Amino acid sequence: MFSDAEVAVHAAQAGAAVARARFGTESHRIRDTGVDFTTDADVEAERAIRAVLAKHRPDDGVLGEEFGGSNDRPRRWLVDPICGTLNHAAGVPLYAVNVSLEIDGVTSAAAIADPAAGQTFWTDGIEARRRDGPSRGQESDVDVPIAPAPTSRIVTVNLESHYPGSIADRLLFDATFREQFSPRCLSTTLALSWVATGQHAGYITGGDLRSSVHWSAGIALCRAAGARVTNLTGGDLHTGAHGLIAAADAETHARMLAVLNTMR
Fold first, then answer.
1. Which Gene3D superfamilies does the entry mention (predicted)?
2. In terms of CB atoms within 10 Å, which end of the chain has fewer, N or C?
3. In terms of domains, do 94 and 208 share one?
4. Are residues 174 and 139 in the same domain?
């Protein structure tokens, strides 16, 4: 019997297989509100994920971005079938598949698949690892530990969330911030997993991220890997100002927070 973490990995990889197969093909928009839209590829990927969950965890609840779900189960899977739909539809290979499990509101297992790279990042709530499968030239699946690192000095700023007082806009052009970090702007939480792997030094976003299909998997991965994760004022996540600062280490977090504090 698969562990919850293995179920998360297999579910994310099922969605990734669909997303990868549909990448570069014509997609049809089902719901369209400008730059925020859903395609038939999103729907197909979520169906593939749900099929895995139904097979291995038939009694659990599921909350998906495309098909919704109920909130009355103590065990509930959160599913974002293609995180970065805008990129995927445009043929930009920066998108992810997010699957996480909440037990009584606490994320206990999660997986983030990067279809373009052929990698899956996962956590069982204790350790964080990267799985490189046969698609990357291996004869069998290989799991390797991941850990944050501040060396890249790359910090992703999520411009899709609104910050109090337009902090996001000012942050990108702040001289002090740019002296210390190189800001990047991406619309997918794939970049949050790069904090856990050491590819990015940090990630900043606003908003209430509680029980979110978009954020739960990445947050769990960062925490298990040892990244510093707080709200926008440096307090406990999901409290007060909400939002997210994810940093490779305490020093990087302190520098990011110091710049944000000058903008309040």
1. 3.40.190.80, Fructose-1,6-Bisphosphatase, subunit A, domain 1
2. N
3. no
4. no
The single-letter code of the amino acid at 207 is: G
Question: 64 and 193 share a domain?
Answer: no
How many residues in the chain?
264
Q: What are the tokens at 158?
A: 């999520």
Strand extents, DSSP E, the chain: 29-33, 36-39, 61-64, 75-83, 96-103, 106-114, 119-123, 128-132, 142-145, 154-157, 182-184, 202-205, 228-230, 244-247
Query: How many CB atoms are located within 10 Å of the residue 162 CB?
Result: 12
Instruction: Write out the residue range of the structural domain in which residue 99 sits.
Output: 4-145
Q: CB within 8 A of 155, min separation 6: which ones?
A: 181, 182, 183, 184, 200, 201, 202, 203, 204, 256
Q: Are residues 80 and 18 in the same domain?
A: yes
Q: What is the pLDDT along the chain (264 residues), one digit of tens a residue?
A: 899 999 999 999 999 999 999 999 988 888 776 667 899 999 999 999 999 999 999 999 999 999 999 777 899 999 999 999 999 999 999 999 999 999 999 999 999 999 999 999 999 999 999 998 654 444 567 899 999 999 999 999 998 877 766 788 888 899 999 999 999 988 789 999 999 999 999 999 999 999 999 999 999 999 999 999 999 999 999 999 899 999 999 999 999 999 999 988
Instruction: Verify that 170 and 122 share a domain, yes or no.
Output: no
Q: Is 104 left (phi over 0), alpha (psi -120 to 50) or beta?
A: left
